[in-house]
Design goal:
The complex is a heterodimer. By secondary structure, chain A is α+β, with helices and mostly antiparallel strands. Chain A has two domains: about 180 residues, no CATH class; about 140 residues, no CATH class. Chain A has 14 helices and ten strands. By secondary structure, chain B is α/β, with parallel strands linked by helices. Chain B has a domain of about 170 residues: Rossmann fold (3-Layer(aba) Sandwich). Chain B has eight helices and ten strands. The two termini of chain B are about 20 Å apart. Classes of the chains: A alpha+beta, B alpha/beta. The interface between A and B is medium-sized, with 24 and 27 residues.
Chain lengths: ~425, ~250
């Protein structure tokens, strides 16, 4: 019953002393705003990452050769990055085609396709003034199957291209718009020249695929690096690489339990590495990467939010300070109220409500400010802003909590005032 | 029919019921210490319903302490106190708050209005603590402000009112829950004589027309002389008691 009256009373008190009210709320405003802003940025980031990673295929397993990191040794050149044993990969450390074939046979029903790639390098394809940033990658049939490229013109890479190691490539429509004024039909059949380091390569374009904008790209539109795909064998020949692979991607068939399959895959390959002192195979899935990345982001933003929460605590102490001042100023009022029949409980309620109103108002302003700041920051980073509902709920609850917690002591002090002394107070 | 304007009739109809009964009231401060100081030394006082009583005494005589005890703001160290037939010495703090709220209307020398809110809200305040609904509070507060001729200024805050106006609002507030007694502590002490006169007239009006029991604490003997009975208090004892009513000829 008295709650509404007390809210009105508290608001009129704040209105009568606007500057003081604002300064009191400032701590709460800054605290809540920073928590909300940080949580908004964190939430937006993890949402964008989740969506873009899911687009890439959450069921893909990435099988990679990694240095064993069980021991830390200092080599002659000093500490090696990654604290692994100092030895670069040699022929016997790679995953061989035999292993892949055996793997494919063992888990035939779980594997949709295996994507193998060999990077030739990053390059710039030039045509007079025009240029396009490219990354040249040799790919197998499995890669093309796994990545499901949308062809705008021409054809994909064929089995014969693969077997014969032809110097034919698939390019993106971005490259075509940079070098061929966007004319995809003209591009097909044309040749491009690219310099990788000191070597020049010439390829014939056989197809154009549609480039999908990635959430991670931050270059300007023209400079965006796109992939140029060529047959795996061609790439191997050009890089004079070993026959083995340091990394491959397995697309699991629908209905496969990614987690168990991941473990089985890791065990399968590591049988070949049991006697390898330096290297082992580690398998990750987008799913596991995704969850570890989001949990990392959440942890980081939570940690920052907790630090920001400390400013809330400071704000709460500010509220308590002002409440104590206000109670001293209003000692006579408290005495009068008691004489008029206010119980200790109703005096306590009045001042707790006042403190809660200050904190909630500060919280509300903080939420608006935080959402604005968070959205602006997220937009500046180039992501879609998405407010974290949890942080808003948290802020409201926490504001009330601070109000009650830091309001209780002053309110109780007010409630316990002796009415005679309070009435006599000058 | 009883004519309330006639003091004789009023006495006849109201004097049967005892409103305040104090017996052997003692009040000590710093009890149980070496500095123990007894302020009231066993007072007996009876006030009947509808009486207008004044308590007169110099500062330090113990009249304020007595008023605090009558007003339930303080408890006696010893003695009995029956207010409207209820033994209030046994009541708990919260019960005392309720009794203060319903049965006692305070009028202070310094008005003690809540400065941040309007006259109207000030008058509503005791009713708020009594749990009366918003609409009823508003209506009753307007009636009371009309009674003290403050209707035009009811939205004004205390700062915007003169001393006499503030005291009229305070009296309206004291009357809010239709209390059994009005307890006025030097109500004209901070006012000039003309304004003080008006406030005294208002008390007489409430006493005559509404039959309110009024206890007036003052050191001004000329104001005390207007009341039905004058009780003189000195050094914590009642030293004199006399009828006074005849001198007042106002309203």
């Amino acid at each position: 019953m008295l709650v509404f009256e007390n809210i009105m009373l508290a608001l009129s008190g704040l209105k009568a002393n606007k500057m003081r009210a604002l300064l009191t709320m400032l701590g709460i405003i800054i605290g809540i705003a920073s928590v909300i802003a940080i949580m908004t940025v964190g939430n937006s980031l993890s949402t964008s990452i989740t969506t873009s990673m899911q687009d890439m295929g959450a069921n893909d397993l990435t099988v990679g050769v990694k240095q064993k990191s069980t021991s830390q040794e200092v080599t002659r050149d000093g500490m090696r990055f990654g604290a692994g044993r100092g030895r670069s990969m040699s022929e016997e450390d790679y995953i061989t085609e035999d292993m892949i074939t055996a793997y494919e046979q063992t888990y035939a029903e779980n594997i949709k396709c295996i994507s193998l790639t060999e990077s030739v390098g990053s390059a710039v394809a030039e045509d007079g003034e025009a240029y396009a940033n490219i990354s040249i990658t040799g790919v197998n049939d499995g890669f093309l199957e796994a990545n499901d490229l949308t062809l705008l013109a021409g054809r994909s890479l064929t089995e014969r291209d693969q077997e014969e190691g032809r110097k034919v490539v698939l390019v993106s429509d971005k490259l075509v718009s940079n070098l061929f004024d966007g004319d995809v039909t003209k591009a097909v059949g044309s040749t491009i020249e690219a310099a990788v380091g000191s070597r020049y390569y010439t390829y014939t374009i056989v197809g154009v695929y549609e480039y999908e904008d990635s959430a991670f790209s931050s270059d300007s539109e023209y400079d965006t690096t796109t992939d140029v795909y060529l047959p795996l064998l061609t790439a191997k020949n050009q890089t004079h690489a070993t026959d083995g692979f340091s990394q491959l991607t397995v697309v699991s068939a629908t209905g496969t339990d990614t987690e168990t399959f991941l473990e089985e895959t890791e065990n399968f390959f590591n049988r070949y590495y049991s006697r390898n002192e330096y290297y082992e195979v580690s398998v990750t899935s987008m799913e596991s990467m995704l969850s570890s990345m989001t949990s990392m982001l959440t942890t980081v933003s939570l940690a920052i939010a907790v630090i920001a929460g400390i400013s809330l605590l400071v704000g709460g102490i500010g509220v308590m300070n002002i409440m104590l001042v206000s109670i001293t100023e209003r000692t006579r009022e408290i005495g009068t109220r008691k004489a008029l029949g206010a119980t200790n409980g109703s005096i306590r309620l009045q001042f707790i409500m006042e403190s809660v109103v200050i904190c909630l108002l500060g919280g509300a302003i903080g939420i608006v400010l935080g959402l604005t700041l968070g959205s602006v920051a997220t937009k500046m980073l180039g992501y879609a802003a998405k407010a974290s509902v949890m942080s808003i709920v948290f802020s409201v609850v926490f504001s009330i909590f601070i109000g009650v917690f830091f309001g209780y002591y002053p309110a109780n002090k007010a409630a316990k005032l002796n009415p005679i002394e309070a009435l006599r107070y000058e | 029919m009883v004519d309330l304007a006639d003091p004789a009739d009023r006495v006849v109809c109201n004097m049967e019921k005892t409103m305040i009964q104090l017996k052997g009231i003692r009040k000590s401060f710093y009890e149980g210490t070496a500095n123990e100081l007894e302020i009231l030394h066993g007072l007996d006082l009876t006030v009947r319903q509808g009486e207008f009583v004044s308590i007169v005494g110099a500062s330090g005589s113990g009249k304020t302490t007595l008023m605090n005890i009558i007003g339930l703001l303080d408890r006696p160290s010893q003695g009995n106190y029956l207010l409207d037939g209820v033994d209030v010495c046994a009541a708990k703090d919260q019960e005392l708050s309720h009794i203060r709220n319903r049965k006692i209307g305070f009028v202070f020398q310094t008005y003690n209005l809540i400065s941040r809110t309007s006259a109207l809200k000030n008058v509503e305040l005791p009713m708020l603590y009594a749990g009366i609904s918003r609409a009823q509070r508003r209506e009753r507060a307007k009636e009371l402000l009309d009674m003290v001729e403050m209707t035009e200024r009811m939205q004004h805050k205390p700062d915007e009112l003169s001393g006499g106006q503030k005291q009229r609002v305070a009296i309206a507030r004291a009357m809010a829950n239709d209390p059994a007694i009005l307890l006025a502590d030097e109500p004209t002490g901070a006012l000039d004589s003309v304004t003080g006169r008006k406030i005294m007239d208002l008390f007489h009006k409430l006493n005559r027309e509404q039959g309110k029991t009024i206890v007036l604490i003052t050191h001004a003997t000329e104001l005390a002389a207007e009341t039905d009975r004058i009780i003189t208090i000195k050094d914590g004892n009642i030293t004199g008691e006399k009828a006074g009513g005849g001198i007042y000829a106002g309203v």
